[in-house]
Structures
1.
Amino acid sequence: MPGSALGPKLSIDDLDIKDKNVLVRVDFNVPMKDGKILDDFRMRSALPTLEKVINSGGKLIIMSHMGRPAETGYEAKYSLKPIADHLGTLLGKPVTFAADCMDAAAEVAKLTPGDVLVLENLRFYPHEGSKDKDQRLEMAKKLASYADLYVSDAFGTAHRDAASMTGVPEVMGQGASGYLMKKEIDYFSKALKEPEKPVVAIVGGAKVSDKIQLLENMLKTVNQMVIGGAMAYTFLKAQGKSTGKSKCETEAETKKGKIDIVELAGKLLSKAKEQGVEIYLPVDHRCSAEFKDVEPVITSDENIPDDLMALDIGPKTEELYCSVDFAKAKTAIWNGPMGVFELEHFKPGTWAVARPLADHSDSCCSIVGGGDSERREKSGYAPKLSHISTGGGASLELLEGKVLPGLAILTDKP
Ligand SMILES: Nc1ncnc2c1ncn2[C@@H]1O[C@H](COP(=O)(O)OP(=O)(O)O)[C@@H](O)[C@H]1O
Ligand SMILES: O=C(OP(=O)(O)O)[C@H](O)COP(=O)(O)O
Ligand SMILES: [Mg+2]
């Protein structure tokens, strides 16, 4: 497991913060709807690190991405301004905002010890997530110019080789981990080093092209894999079922170019069979003609009619998924909701999976990850879950055995 294999990293506690400009990369990519924050779990989780900088007399500069802006440049729905305002409430002090993350020197210069500045969404520049390292470094140099010290608390983004994650510490020649990063890595080093078997993985959500590529290696570790969310439709397509108007990803961008993930899903199903891993797929769905919170149409089987989109697993699937042997499982790893649980009518599937996990919490170590995890926590089952992680893709990559670039780049403890 990389966290432990990499050895301890320089910590925020090792830094002399007083009067220094401290640039902290956080993952404030929180779920939003109509400019409102649906779940601030990721923000609250980073507060100890932010408060440490403030209370140590540092000048705090916070940077994050938000969403996946399609075009480069400003897009109101992905602005971090509402996040900066909410952070002011959480910290109980004024938070200033730099409307252009690459032109923030004037705002930085105004900071006095204990002040807080939030930079606008890093992904408004293509450099942040560019495949071209030089382009990433160009941005990293600018960001690094604002600060004396770099701290990463963005566990949820640690699997991304982005300008702000790997470029800035490379340019500055220094990078320390914040408290959230350390807490997550410490937890996963123990829990995933040798996960107690049988292991059940529950995989859903919307980032299908990213996450499907992690499943092949996970087959080595898991005994049962329960699939929901949009991930399910790529698998059903591979089985020749109809997926209607559902969000069904068919291609993924990789370092070697585009790959066909329907084909990959088919291969995964055969491989799972060979390796004795049971894969569970939906046998019915809750659907709608449009992406709206309306009374669902329930399909009679796994096929989705052409004029409908599936937005949640159906009642028969709920029953099937509840029959998974959670009583026997010793470890359960859950990433991504079973449906669009932001919408009232499409949350039952996600809640249905949370219930058996909570019921078997005495015998099974249950780890839930992702930007939406806490709303699963709000289902009322969370107090019984073992660990709620701020990282979805990041925790899956750890489970798969990958080294997270955003962690590897941090300075080793002397
Ligand atoms: N059937 C579906 N169709 C479209 N989107 C879905 C579906 N099921 C789940 N989602 C969406 O997946 C999103 C979360 O996906 P993802 O980011 O991959 O998971 P996580 O943040 O838990 O790692 C939620 O916003 C949810 O609305
Ligand atoms: O929300 C995130 O990941 P997650 O949805 O897998 O938990 C992170 O902020 C990373 O975002 P990205 O997957 O758009 O790079
Ligand atoms: Mg997410």
Note: The radius of gyration is 21 Å.
2.
Amino acid sequence: MSEVWTTPHRSAPVDAVVALPGSKSLTARALVLAALSDGPSRLVRPLRARDTDLMAGALRALGVHVRADGADWLVTPGDLRGPAEVDAGLAGTVLRFLPPVAALATGPVRVDGDARLRDRPNAGLIAALRDLGVRIEDDGRGRAPFTVHGTGRVRGGAVTVDASESSQIVSGLLLAAARFDEGIDLTLAGGLPSMPHVEMTVESLREHGVTVTATDGGWRVTPGPITARDEVLEPDLSNAAPFLAAALVTGGRVTVGDWPTATTQPGGRLDQLLGEMGASVTRTDDGGLQVTGTGVVRPLVADLGEVGELTPVLAALCALAEGPSRLTGIGHLRGHETDRLQALDEVLTAVGARVEQLPDGLVVTPGPRRAARLDSYADHRMVMAGAVLGLAIAGVEVADPGAVSKTLPDFADRWSAMLGADR
Ligand SMILES: O=C(O)C1=C[C@@H](OP(=O)(O)O)[C@@H](O)[C@H](O)C1
Ligand SMILES: C=C(OP(=O)(O)O)C(=O)O
């Protein structure tokens, strides 16, 4: 892909069926649990993208055998050991899920990544690990780079955790906790975004035979073995968002195949959210989710705190809506791949919308549309948001579109295929 992507403009209704690779979040959990489990596992239809490659690489660096050369990934646990250097790239999942695993290794494990990773909030995780008996060297801010000095075991036990800036702090602790001597009795110190992602963690743990109990203020994980299991990964429903949005924008029809009947992925809320924005949403007989639009996009007033990663695409839709939208509950997006509230403000303003930043969200008022060159902000979901805008607005370009490699390296090809797939 070139340095600047001229996104396809399309006024005719799209009519396409789209198949998507596995979920980033489920693949990350499956890799970590496979690495900590009591035998080899096979992951079927994992996501192959920068974030999951980095997770596989991080686990390999600690002594886990991950075979990723075939269609399936084969994971064989090994003795966890340092010294090791872990490149977390820009992946929140690696930043927050890997350190508790590193604490179970012997020897130092240094975690670092892209320049922006060093700004991503992580103090709640580092403080919690220290309270659980782990020695960690950091710059005093709890952010990358830091070094976990594992001794091969973690005491565990009761801990109060500040996960107000990222649910991944809770997920990371819970994922490894069955291997701590005392498990974990985690109490939240404050708010928690992205609750479905914690439910995903709890469900993944239970599928691996781990006992997780919801308590008054958090979760308790009982110490014990993590049972190895083969797993077929659900498609990534957050990556489905731009494709389904295309139906709404063009007044067309898009079906994403193999849509799970029940899911903890935040994208599972797309039927309701896109329905509120004017789509009709149905399930197809062969298990897909079909979204049909009329070409009119209704404004959205919603608290997206539980489904934050859907925000960039939904906000792009809001800029194309027939009135002002208000998206709240998403202050923590300022700590994502980029400050997404600021980035969305800049991008939506560039294409003609009026944007007001709230402490925890955005008010987006559509305006006269205009062409613009947008930045990707190294953020995969900002590229996808740009693609949605470009459908409706001629002349939308996105600089540095390769940022999509974080979760969907061939996004632009899939986007073109969708647009060319009219029947
Ligand atoms: O656990 C996970 O897989 C994720 C949790 C969420 O993180 P935050 O709670 O930091 O938003 C989400 O935004 C991220 O894309 C993936
Ligand atoms: C916030 C996201 O990623 P990360 O896992 O790096 O936090 C995302 O994918 O939208």
Note: The mean pLDDT is 97.
3.
Amino acid sequence: MSILEGRNLTKHFTAARGPRGRFGKRPPVRAVEDVSIALRAGSVTALVGESGCGKSTVARLLAQVYPATSGEVLLRGEPVRAHRGAAFKEYRRQVQLIFQDPFASLNPFHRVRYHLARPLRLHGHARSDAEEREQVAELLERVSLTPVEQFMDKMPHELSGGQRQRVAIARALAVRPIALIADEPVSMLDVSIRLGVLRLLEGLARENGLALLYITHDIASARYFAEDITVMYAGRLIESGPGEELTQSPRHPYTRLLLESAPDPDRVAPPAGERHGEPPSLIDPPGGCRFHPRCPVALPVCSTEAPGRTELGERRWTHCWQAGAALSR
Ligand SMILES: Nc1ncnc2c1ncn2[C@@H]1O[C@H](COP(=O)(O)OP(=O)(O)OP(=O)(O)O)[C@@H](O)[C@H]1O
């Protein structure tokens, strides 16, 4: 059974700017359309796509930062209905978000100890100063900020970006969540320390049976850390599968494009003539398959009808008119 699941999630925002329509209303930004995704215990699932395709919106819908326009979120198979009160607070404890910017996520006026002790106290895990100290030390150890005495009393500005992100991860762990949603957790960190933070997240998920959603624009990193990869394009999911299989034999032309443009240490320059175009507007997305204007193998049907889901194997599927043809070849 999945720990955290989004079923047919759709989110339309009201555009803050832009021209108004006939009745003075602005058209909605169709940020997320019909997204279904399931996270399993002790497993890393990557959600991959270009900037602006709706990844963060999916993260926020799963974390219930704001309500979905339609669709539902399930925790351990049970639909989440509470949007306030004790049940909602409990949900927010169980599903923790880790953000991209470790500089913005810690309070500059408080020491590391405070950031970790506060959630422990609020959730009743530490009932005395001694217990609190012990648990803060244990959390710092779990994120490899050792020797712990050196880090407990540091102020955020005394830490590197990677160390701050480790404190943010420790703070998320303090409330004993069952699912972690990490939204581009390393993209603001130095390249040299990204790997360490990703390995830490992966280890925590596997050792503690946490369901981890790793959101990234970088399919190369997803391939190394995630058991499953789901690819998103212009608000919709287009392909999903076990990471190895999906990257070895991508079935959707957009996944192929992402893999081709991923940094490859053996390739000096991008292949000649590589022109991929721009992702579409989410206010007025293309009809049919949203990728069709950029697709090198589009058929006439691709511009008129959205392709349904083609099942390709266990946990493996795609939305592409060509997928069926490829299967029967
Ligand atoms: N609160 C909001 N109000 C209006 N539009 C929004 C809001 N949040 C996001 N959007 C729009 O929804 C679309 C998807 O944004 P989202 O941040 O989810 O994408 P993303 O893939 O996470 O991009 P990035 O990697 O750049 O963060 C964008 O067009 C964005 O402008």
Note: Residues 13, 16, 29, 31, 49, 51-57, 217, 282 surround adenosine-5'-triphosphate (CB under 6 Å).
4.
Amino acid sequence: MNDPSPLLQLERVSRRLGGRTVVRELDLRLARGQVLGLLGVNGAGKSTTLAMMAGAQQPDRGCVRLQGVDLAEQPQRARTDIGWLPERAPLWPELNVIEHLDASARLRGLRGAAVRKRRDALLERLQLQREARRLVAVLSQGQRQRVGLACALLHEPPLLVLDEPGNGLDPLQAAQLRELIRERAAAGCGVVLSTHLLPEVTAVCDRVAILHEGALRHDAPLHAGRDRLLLTLAQSVDAAHIAALTPVAQVQAQDACRYAITLRDDADAPALVQAAVAAGLAVAGVQPVAGELEQAFMRIATQHAASASEQAQAA
Ligand SMILES: Nc1ncnc2c1ncn2[C@@H]1O[C@H](COP(=O)(O)OP(=O)(O)OP(=O)(O)O)[C@@H](O)[C@H]1O
């Protein structure tokens, strides 16, 4: 179901770079409180799309609306209402971390005591206190990434746009980042992130969009994949028998004896087994439908490899 007034909306957005269309006719919506994962093979157009969402690049065609307002008409909204972490956070190497965060906070409209309050809270939250007085120039990649994240979060914007935010973070920091993203989403913030790590997507995102050669090839809620179960029977029955079971919301026959099932919100796997047995069905097993996201990604990536090799042969 579409949110009637999305936080962020891309309307037929296209972008040309180096004489090629690298993002084409993209339609995407993001609701408040939603975390959208943007996936795609290298060069699919993720960073370009995120830069347009963040107001850092302008579409050649189409428009990006934040809370209904075209960003091209009010470009200053990008600085105050969006937290943007590009793939390589552009930091000032000659400032120390505190100076950097204070300057960033003022650029984003914070003044007075709020600057120090937000800066100190983020130094603690992102475990940067020990680096607070060190020059940005001498920080490690993971420390720089956390300074970039702090800059994106300082002004508590309603939209966060994060390009591979886990880059350079150790597993503990990566887990803390996921927690932070979920917290911001719970507070009503919309988040878009790109990553190549599918487990990161399943851990933190509500929805996944996959780009292929700049076009949107997949846009679906993640819970639909996560909640599906594979029911295996020792007999073949018409899918309508399964659909009639109370815990079942949707059923799709996979082959003669296996059925992919979406449960109703209040149901779980034991309830499904109980209902099936009570209906006289010979249940051989129930398990989660594995790796639907991986399957979607691999299908699209394989097409990419095939079309690239056809182009190379034609050249
Ligand atoms: N400044 C530029 N000039 C010309 N072409 C560009 C420029 N920036 C990006 N491109 C091209 O646009 C396409 C999309 O690039 P983009 O960085 O958006 O992809 P991506 O999906 O983020 O890739 P990756 O996963 O490798 O980060 C690529 O083919 C890239 O070579």
Note: The chain is about 35% helix and 25% strand.
